[in-house]
Design a protein that fits this description.
285 residues, Rossmann fold, UDP-galactose 4-epimerase, domain 1, 2 domains, 45% helix
């Protein structure tokens, strides 16, 4: 029986494989499944098994799974087709009779106003309906999500946003990977729903201050309305749909969608989550 990481060639998946190895999980018990041949080759060099898997290709998913496996389904990035892709993986898991399926969902999926939530709620419903033993890893925000804003602030001295005084309990991908690897490699997590987020929920004013420290120049937070935010993003070159989506995310932050901090992430990872400043510093290079 293996630990199969579906989505292992993504940024989070690669870190989960690394964490499993650092926790002493034998390399031959890990199957890194993903689309990128280059990334799979790098993971193979670490001694783990690999499988070329495309969520749009049911046969490739079927071939990667065996009875009794533990499967981590990292949510797909193709927003238009994500629910169908998730259904493909879940159906394959049922056919293979995997022993445990874990899914990377979104923070407070069943109650949040977050615009990203519906696909994750649907995936959770599909997994519950499958009858397989499950664990939901409801991930909050990645500090790395602010890399582009950090680089823009280097040039403009401004962090533009419409989150108001909303707070974000972010953590680094490495923090999330550590917690996920802990769940994958220890017993007793079936049926649990973990709300994973950082230890401190910060405001955009705090984020601007952290930008100032990291960049070594003053950065101010320019708080605007959602409509003004969307227009500014369009003026910067984004299409209207993407600009509206990003402004909606800030609106969700203002509503408190990413402020929840339960301590689950630090407890599972076995250490405090990475402070905002420490998470931003590697992004400034």
């Amino acid at each position: 029986m293996s630990i199969v990481i579906a989505g292992a060639t993504g940024q989070l998946g690669r870190l989960v494989v690394k964490e499993l190895l650092s926790r002493g999980v034998p390399a031959d018990r890990i199957v890194a499944a993903g689309r990128s041949a280059e990334q799979l080759a790098e993971l193979s060099a670490r001694g783990v098994n690999t499988a070329t898997v495309d969520y749009n290709d049911p046969a490739s998913v079927n071939a990667a799974l065996n009875e009794g496996d533990t499967l981590l389904l990292i949510s797909g990035s193709d927003v238009q087709n994500r629910t169908t892709q998730h259904q493909t993986v879940i159906d394959a898991a049922v056919r293979a009779k995997v022993g445990h399926i874990l899914y990377t969902s979104v923070l407070a999926a069943d109650t949040t106003p977050l615009v990203l939530a519906p696909d994750h709620v649907k995936a959770e419903e599909l997994i519950r309906a499958s009858g397989l033993p499950f664990t939901f890893l409801r991930n909050g925000w990645y500090t790395e999500n602010y890399a582009a804003a950090l680089h823009s602030a280097r040039e403009t001295g401004t962090l533009l946003g419409s989150a108001g005084e909303g707070r974000v309990a972010s953590a680094t991908r490495a923090d999330y990977a550590a917690a996920i690897a802990a769940v994958l490699s220890t017993a007793g997590h079936e049926g649990h729903v973990y709300e994973l987020s950082g230890d401190h929920a910060w405001t955009y004013q705090e984020l601007a201050s952290a930008f100032s420290t990291v960049l070594g120049r003053p950065v101010r937070y320019a708080s605007v309305s959602p409509a003004e935010h969307a227009l500014a993003l369009e003026a910067a070159g984004l299409d209207a749909a993407t600009a509206g989506f990003l402004a909606a995310l800030d609106g969700n932050i203002q509503q408190g969608a990413l402020a929840l901090s339960t301590g689950d992430l630090a407890r599972l990872a076995g250490r405090p989550t990475t402070p905002l400043l420490d998470g931003l510093r590697p992004l400034a290079g």
